[in-house]
Amino acid sequence: MDDPGNLIYLAFLVISLIAGLVKNRNKNSRPDSHSEQPAGRPAMSVENFREILEQRKAKEQAAEERLKQMEAEAVEAKQRKIRKMPPQKRITEPAKEDIVFHHEENDLTHIDLRKAVIYSEILNPPYV
Q1: Are the CB atoms for 47 and 41 separated by under 8 Å?
Q2: Within 13 Å and on the Cβ side, how many CA atoms surround 101?
Q3: For a FRET experiment, which of 37, 47, 88, 111 has its CA 20 to 30 Å from that of 22?
Q4: Neighbours of 11 (CB within 10 A)
């Protein structure tokens, strides 16, 4: 028992036991904290519960009415926006002069296979 480490350990152990006993004694001397209402909240009775339910129902009804009003306003705004839009231009078929045919690009006889393989390898590298 001459080692100071053992003495410190023993002193810590005795202090923690005494603190635990004091805490338990204080806990047992207090009345049940579970049966008490938290501070600031009244005891819940049937009348209080009914009042709270009525308040919630009133809030829900007010929220539903506000939602319907907002939906109606959104529909009205959409209708006003549609009325303000300019008429859309008709899409007509392009004139034959506007269409340019490139016979050389569509002709398959000018395909260089060597370039095609090189380009395909560049676009699809095997180790990426």
Answers
A1: no
A2: 4
A3: 37
A4: 10
> Which DSSP state fits 85?
S
pTM to 2 decimals?
0.33
- Joined together, the tokens standing for residue 70 give 């907002």
Distance CA 44, CA 38 (A): 11
Q: Per-residue b/e over 53-88, b at no fewer than 16 CB within 10 Å? A: eeeeeeeeeeeeeeeeeeeeeeeeeeeeeeeeeeee
Q: What is the dihedral of CA 57, 62, 67, 73, to 10 degrees?
A: 160
Task: Render pLDDT for 114-123 as a digit per residue (tens, 0 to 9).
Answer: 888 888 888 8
Query: For residues 110 and 104, is the Cβ–Cβ distance under 8 A?
Result: yes
* Contact predicate 7/1, CB 8 Å: yes
Q: Which residues contact 37 (CB under 8 A, 6 or more apart)?
A: 43, 44
